[in-house]
Amino acid sequence: MEQLFTFIGNHPLLVGAFVVFLILFIRNEMSRGGAAISSQKLVQLVNSENALVIDVRDATEYSEGHIVDAVNIPFANFESRSDELNKHKDKPLIVACKMGQHSGSVGTILRKKGFTNVLRLSGGMAEWRGQNLPVVKT
User: Fold this and answer.
1) Which domain holds residue 44?
2) pTM for the whole thing?
3) Are 28 and 52 found together in one domain?
4) CA-CA distance, 78 to 74, in Å (whole number)?
5) Percent above pLDDT 70 for the chain
6) Is residue 22 domain-shared with residue 38, that is, in the same domain?
């Protein structure tokens, strides 16, 4: 540990450049799949801008409870079924998954296909349910 502090003291420019690149890398990776939004922001966007929620959980999890009017396209099939969303290019798209682990990947796919207003539900459906927000069961 003492050597680490000595290294930092002897090479401040190198350490500074590393920290800057690390911050830029993290910022880039977080924004690739779209900005993360809270559950309250999701409700606001659905009500004011007619945003579309895309639920990428599998069909069984979706049927156990999902956000009202959410479209279910499972993550495993998303590449092949993403063209179903082309008619919604003018709307904000909010990607929701179980805990937030797949929404960034789906957001990246959507951005590559020309969707510009892609957002991710922070914490996924676990956060949505944790806040006791309504779900629809099918």
Assistant:
1) 33-130
2) 0.78
3) no
4) 6
5) 96
6) no
